Amino acid sequence: MFSGIIIDTGIVRRIENNGTTKLVTIESSISNSLVIDQSIAHDGVCLTVIKVETGLHQVEIVNETLSKTTFQFLETGKTMNLEKSISLTTLLDGHLIQGHVDTTLVCQKIKDLNGSWTFQFNLPDGFESLVIPHGSICINGVSLTIANLYDRTFDVAIIPYTYHHTNFKHLKEGEPVNVEFDLIGKYILRQFQFRNLTE
Questions:
Q1: Per residue in 138-155, is it b (16+ CB within 10 Å) or e — as a string?
Q2: Residue 90 carries which DSSP code?
Q3: Above 80 in pLDDT, residue 185?
Q4: Among 40, 69, 175, 171, which Cα is nearest to 117's?
Q5: pLDDT band at residue 94, thresholds of 50, 70 and 90?
Q6: With 0-12 CB in 10 A as exposed, 13-18 as middle and 19+ as buried, what is 38?
Q7: 3-state helix, strand, coil in the chain (%, to 5)
Q8: Ranges assigned E (strand) in the chain
Q9: How far apart are CA 130 and CA 117, in angstroms?
């Protein structure tokens, strides 16, 4: 489990193909502190560390993950948001995140508000029930709050600290992001759906 509080960013240095699996090597300031078999969120995707070198760590991304995340477009030089998993004694500054991406969304619009930013994303059919005004959402691994909710889009507000310490500063209009909707909301929605099916 994660909380959506990014502790570092890493840069993709190598991408190797092993059948349908990609071996990805990332350079970051936390790489040396990682251990093999450790779970680390990369842009909101929980991946297992399989190798640690000096200033580098390597993860495997299987076809299932590639097909459902932005990693299908991954290129060397990309900046990734990184977070170590939380413990039962961790201060939960964000919200509970599994590292299991639900879908990818596209950044529709970016507004510079001279001290903060708003980013607008599309909301495809089937996901409308998973977002509420001022509810939690995880975008590229960052715990954020829904600032405005419209029929087919929503906005999140980004403070300067988050902008400068995550890859939001690199995000462009038209680019995709990884999204994980609120875990509690998904369970509640599933209960209502199941109840309707059995009535």
A1: bbbbbbbebeeeeeeebb
A2: S
A3: no
A4: 171
A5: confident
A6: middle
A7: 20, 45, 35
A8: 8-18, 21-27, 39-42, 45-53, 56-61, 79-84, 103-112, 117-122, 136-139, 142-149, 153-158, 176-181
A9: 23
Token pair in block for residue 182 = 């609120």
- Which two structure tokens, joined as six digits, stand for 5? 């509080």
Task: Write out pLDDT tens, residues 15-63.
Answer: 999 999 999 999 999 999 999 999 999 999 999 999 999 999 999 999 9
Q: Is pLDDT of 153 > 90?
A: yes
Mean pLDDT of all residues belonging to the chain:
93
Please report the pLDDT score of residue 187 as a whole number: 74
Nearest of 14, 10, 3, 1 to residue 136 by alpha carbon? 3
Burial label, 60 (beta-carbon count in 10 A; 0-12, 13-18, 19+): middle
d(CA 175, CA 104): 10
Long-range contacts at 33-40 (CB < 8 A, ≥ 24 apart): 38/84, 38/85, 39/85, 39/99, 40/82, 40/83, 40/84, 40/85
Tell me which residue of 13, 97, 96, 93 sits closest to 59, measured CA to CA: 13
pLDDT of residue 188: 77
All structural domains of the chain, each given as residue ranges with its CATH number in brackets, are 8-84 (2.40.30.20), 103-198 (2.40.30.20)
Q: Do the bridges between strand 176-181 and strand 21-27 make them parallel or antiparallel, or are there none, so unpaired? A: unpaired
Q: What is the largest CA-CA distance in the chain?
A: 59
